[in-house]
Specification:
The relative contact order is 0.28. The chain is about 25% helix and about 35% strand. It starts with a strand and ends with a strand. The chain is an alpha+beta fold. It is globular and about 30 Å long.
């Protein structure tokens, strides 16, 4: 089975804005821990496999893959 490119989807619950990243590290280059609601290490641990999700009061973060 062919794997897609890893995508980290960040959805802001109040503003309904969506951002897409290639890594957890890239998320924290754009947004602070306070904005995301956790630190980089914790989020990386939560998103170890495709389909994993992390929900806070501010954001929903989903790890998925881009199929080309």
């Amino acid at each position: 089975m062919r794997k897609g490119i890893k995508i980290i989807h960040v959805h802001f619950l109040v503003s309904h804005k969506n951002y897409y990243f290639g890594s957890v590290r890239a998320v924290f280059k754009k947004f602070s821990e306070e904005t995301i609601g956790c630190n980089e290490s914790y989020l990386r641990h939560q998103l170890t496999e495709e389909g994993n999700k992390h929900l806070t009061k501010k954001v929903l973060v989903i790890r998925s893959s881009l199929i080309r």
